[in-house]
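**Fold in tokens:**
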Amino acid sequence: MGRLSKGCLALAAAAAAAAIGTNVYAAEPTYDELKQQLDQLKSRLDQLETRQAVSAQEVDKTVERVLQDANHRSQLLQAEG
């Protein structure tokens, strides 16, 4: 073998080692890992839904206060008029 073919052989060996290493890192997650991730996502979803419900309640309260204020101001205008 000449010097060029030894270099090509080393390059091919390095490429093969890299490909094998990549397959190790690309392994599918285990059942337990997927279950843990699902539990984390469910927890996050619960947090977001709770926050959204609180926001909706705040909007309802604000709308109610605005309507009460508008009604009060209307009554004052009618009394003056």
Helices lie at 3-25, 31-80. The chain has a mean pLDDT of 83.
